[in-house]
Specification:
alpha/beta; about 15% strand; 13 strands; about 425 residues; 2 domains; Aspartate Aminotransferase, domain 1
Length: about 425
């Protein structure tokens, strides 16, 4: 099916046929959900050894009694785990609670209220702004929106953000104080930044205002689906460019062990860590060290963590393959959509024809299949072209995912044909 070359009679015939198929599906009263990238129950079960793992032995290797207060930085063994994931020195890591999003919120709040490393707090600027590669992660945008920090769209490319545009904006506006990045298997496109992009991101500290910070959310650092994909090391590039204060890195075990009870990490320069800890001292006496110790005992060596992630990949690979099979078969020879074929991460990004995404999501919802809201992958929930839809294959069983994707492709076809007829 190709819309651009179809006659009106063909479009009307297609609409009639597709509408009939759609009405038949609606009669099944489905209740399927592919909205968010949650691990499946099978994935969560891979880490059930956490339960009872300590067997009453609560002392860490350095003698710390993990049941007690203290240790703002987190356990040494937990910081070493975060250092392995992010490929940085453990001395530059804080190990926290279960959520990297909490650490990111705290970091943005630190920059906004107090400033980093002696730099001007962002709240003292007339209109502080963050650059947002789009499509991107809605929870990143929500942090800035809640604090009244402006959001500026930057297009994503096949190798990362459009760095020509990033550099132009940073040089033109000294009130741009940060940029969100998901550098490996980006949410939702699946793109991994190439070496040139990482190098140019590391150089931003030379042209941006002194308080500018890159928020490097490496959420999928070890979430490869097959062959390992290499991400150039942003810390190394920052050291080479003398911009180490410009970058804060984040990761967690939320999609490694139990999603609701993992360990989160932030890595940054000593000056940035000092800024973060100055505020943390007023809000906590320390993280959950018992949970940190459990994770360190589950993965005493990084090689064991990598083997664990291969088991995740074995569960996820068939689901991603199924989604891509549906898209290839439905749209491989059509002009109804474009999509990425990610090598890891948790999402498949699909672009409809302009002006169709919201209609697709509504049609799917009415047929019993919940999708991430159209526009969610853009700041303020506004996709300028109304095209992008994020598909999250991880949570449902294969049979349910197969049904959901059958409904999805039908809704894309029906919305596309109706849009063409209305033009």
């Amino acid at each position: 099916m190709r819309i651009d070359s179809a006659t009106r009679d063909q479009l009307q015939a297609w609409e009639k046929e597709l509408s009939a198929q759609y009405q038949r599906i609606c009669q099944h009263e489905l209740n399927l959900d592919i909205t968010r990238g949650k691990p499946s129950a099978d994935q969560l079960s891979l880490s059930d050894k956490l339960d009872g793992l300590l067997n009453g032995e609560y002392r860490a290797d350095d003698g710390t009694d993990t049941r007690n207060y203290g240790g703002l930085d987190g356990l040494v063994c937990s910081r070493e785990l975060g250092a392995d994931i992010l490929q940085v020195p453990a001395s530059e890591v804080i190990a926290g609670g279960n959520s990297s999003l909490t650490l990111m919120y705290h970091a943005v709040l630190t920059g906004y209220l107090f400033g980093f490393a002696g730099n001007k707090p962002w709240r003292e600027m007339q209109a502080p702004k963050f650059l947002c590669p789009v499509p991107g992660y809605d929870r990143h945008f929500a942090i800035c929106e809640q604090l009244g920090i402006g959001l500026v769209n930057v297009p994503m490319t096949a190798t990362g953000p459009d760095m020509d545009e990033v550099e132009r904006l940073v040089q033109a506006d000294q009130e741009i104080v940060g940029m969100w990045c998901v550098p490996k298997f980006s949410n939702p496109t699946g793109v991994t930044y190439d070496e040139e992009t990482v190098e140019r991101v590391a150089r931003l500290g030379k042209i941006a205002n002194p308080g500018f910070r890159v928020f490097w959310d490496n959420a999928y650092a070890i979430h490869d689906l097959g062959q390992q994909v290499s991400l150039p090391n942003i810390r190394t590039a920052s050291l080479e460019n003398d911009t180490v204060d410009c970058v804060l890195q984040f990761a967690s075990t939320s999609k490694v062990t139990h999603a609701g009870s993992g360990v989160a990490f932030v890595s940054a320069s000593p000056a940035n860590l000092a800024s973060l800890k100055q505020q943390m001292q007023a809000m906590t006496i320390g993280p959950d060290k018992v949970n940190q110790l459990r994770h360190s005992r589950l993965f005493p060596e990084f090689s064991m963590l990598k083997e664990h992630m291969k088991k995740h990949a074995e569960i996820l690979q068939p689901k991603f393959a199924l989604v891509l099979k549906h898209l290839d078969e439905a749209f491989g020879e059509s002009d109804l959509g474009q999509w990425e074929k990610p090598k890891g991460g948790y999402f498949v990004s699909f672009d409809t024809r302009p002006g169709c995404a919201q209609a697709v999501v509504k049609l799917a919802a009415d047929a019993g299949v919940k999708l991430t809201p159209a526009g969610a992958t853009f700041p303020y929930g506004k996709d300028p072209e109304d095209r992008n839809i994020r598909i999250a294959p991880s949570f449902p069983p294969l049979e349910e995912l197969d049904t959901a994707m059958s409904v999805f492709v039908l809704c894309v076809k029906l919305a596309s044909v109706r849009k063409a007829l209305a033009a």
